[in-house]
Amino acid sequence: MTETTAILPQVDKALLLQRLQQILPASALLAEPEELRAYECDGLSAYRRLPLLVALPETTGQVQAILRLCSALGVPVVARGAGTGLSGGALPHGQGLLLSLARLTAILAVDADRRTARVQPGVRNLAISQAVDALGLYYAPDPSSQIACSIGGNVAENSGGVHCLKYGLTVHNIQKLKVVTMSGELLEIGSDGPDAAGYDLLALMTGSEGMLGVIVEVTVRLLPKPERAQVMLAAFDDPAKAGAAVGAIIAAGIIPAGLEMMDKLAVQAAEDFVHAGYPRDAEAILLCELDGTHEEVSEQLLTLRDILRGSGAVEVRTARDEAERQLFWKGRKAAFPAVGRISPDYYCMDGTIPRQRLPQVLRAIAELSQEYGLTVANVFHAGDGNLYPLILYDANRPGELERTEALGGRILELCVAVGGTITGEHGVGMEKIDQMCVQFSSAELAQMHALKQAFDPQGLLNPGKAVPSLHRCAELGAMHVHQGRLAFPDLERF
Ligand SMILES: Cc1cc2nc3c(=O)[nH]c(=O)nc-3n(C[C@H](O)[C@H](O)[C@H](O)COP(=O)(O)OP(=O)(O)OC[C@H]3O[C@@H](n4cnc5c(N)ncnc54)[C@H](O)[C@@H]3O)c2cc1C
Cys bridge to 407: 154, 372, 463, 475, which one at CB 3.0-4.6 A? Predict the structure, then answer.
């Protein structure tokens, strides 16, 4: 079997450049080191590598011609959207072409009756909602990078956000894709109906991290904007009680538009940073947003209050007005940079667990934190069971980084042990490729390789990412932040 990490032959850069010049204008090709530098990494800046060349096509036909050429010459290709990925998915191949989709930014059609929009892959996530705002519609999946990240990248990563608990991930909000295979074939995947015959290639392509094909068009589903949104804040004297409240809310049939949790350390850091009005003495808080018609929201707020009280909340507050609602969310959005202010470094994990296991996992993380002598601040998309434990450390203290990584590894193993997964929203890319060995058996990984081979027999699309070769296995990886210096610091962190 060809593995995704197959050793590829040396590429003749001059020949590649010359042949690409027959497809693209000079303005769409970058070859100088200083031009390539801007593409050397994505949001996971710990991994950097210059590509041989960068191509910036402006049409689907150009994408097809480029892939046909690279296929013929045996040149690896890494697709790139906005480069905000946090797992190294768009890290260039040193002997390959970096294929940027950033110039394919047209919103091709909006169908208000069918509530769909057909867009090119380089369109920013938020730009879709902005374009249909006047129609009273929006695109629900809302990664906190949404002002910058591209819809093509969202599909490739199956991105999520606060709203995804109620409205689903990217995969649940797209209807059709146009994809170019490595051999240059244009595929149309999905249908206008609720289902399509044959294998569900739409789902397969979503989250495929640029390994199976290059997305050149996305038909997204749009939703009507809710009449009203309201957020309730609940404070708890025990994080496990907050975790149990999450399960109780969902069990009661309420699906919040957002259900976020922060533990004491995260609450205090956020409060000191943005003065959101959080109770500093709470051991944990939940932020629960409801949306819908005025009547629905009013009714559910009453039920929600009872559930939160019944779960042991010591304080329950509804935002008094839109300004306070925004302030409550501002604190949550500022949690990552706020933690960056109280520790020289932090290590951001991203794993998912079945949400009923939250209390158990929170207790286990607290024990592990003690065992390793390292402080952990916890911020969660609680409704999705998506954890972001932030391990505080100081890289200048000998051995602390290693201890931090070991603790991070134990936390991810814990996620797998309780039936969860090693990835939440950030994909596998380079970052978590080794944890794939922890989560999947050889037989399961072999099936993933077989799929890769069916789409890309030469193994040229994004080689060495997301699916480890069968002999590979090792330590964990995650996002490291030194002295608060984040990639894309101006973007909100959820
Ligand atoms: C501050 C910050 C906050 C974030 N918050 C969230 C969050 O809340 N939720 C979340 O899910 N993610 C989040 N992310 C991660 C990131 O924004 C998402 O993964 C996003 O979907 C990446 O989109 P991109 O256009 O930047 O893709 P890139 O980073 O350019 O690429 C990501 C992957 O997709 C592939 N790819 C890109 N475009 C295409 C295409 N057209 N065809 C085929 N493959 C392609 C690449 O090869 C790569 O493997 C955050 C990132 C930052 C920096």
Answer: 372
> Residue 9's pLDDT band (boundaries 50, 70, 90)?
low
Q: For the whole model, what pTM was predicted?
A: 0.87
The CA distance from 315 to 277, in Å, is: 13
What's the CA angle centered on 397, arms 392 and 399, to 5 degrees? 90
Please tell me if the CB atom of residue 84 comes closer than 6 angstroms to any atom of ligand 1: yes
pLDDT digits (tens, 9 = 90+) for 100-134: 999 999 999 999 999 999 999 999 999 999 999 99
CB 210 within 8 A of CB 79: yes
- CB of 121 within 6 A of ligand 1: the answer is yes
Q: Is 353 left (phi over 0), alpha (psi -120 to 50) or beta?
A: beta
Q: What is the dihedral of CA 103, 105, 106, 111, to 10 degrees?
A: 150
Task: Give CA–CA dist 45/85, Å, rounded.
Answer: 10
Q: Read off the pLDDT of residues 238-273 as tens digits, 9 standing for 90 and up.
A: 988 998 899 899 999 999 999 999 999 999 999 999
Question: Whole-angstrom Cα distance, residue 4 to residue 453?
Answer: 8
* Backbone φ/ψ region at 9: left (φ over 0), alpha (ψ -120 to 50), beta: beta
Half-sphere exposure of 203 (CA within 13 A, CB side): 8
CA of 3 to the centre of ligand 1 (A): 24
Q: Which residue reads 């800046």 in tokens?
A: 45
Encode pLDDT of 201-236 as tens digits.
999 999 999 999 999 999 999 999 999 999 999 999
CA distance 161 to 168: 9
Query: Residue 188 pairs with which residues in a beta bridge?
Result: 178
Check: CB of residue 290 under 8 Å from CB of residue 216: no
What is the atom index within ligand 1 of the atom nearest the CA of 152?
41
CA 426, 325, 492: angle at the middle one, nearest 5?
30
Backbone angles phi, psi at 348, to 5 degrees: -95, 115
Instruction: Name, in order, each residue with C-beta under 8 angstroms of 200's C-beta and a sequence gap of 6 or more.
Output: none
Asked whether the beta carbons of 140 and 163 are under 8 A apart, the reply is: yes
The alpha carbon of 146 and the centre of ligand 1 are apart by a number of angstroms equal to 10
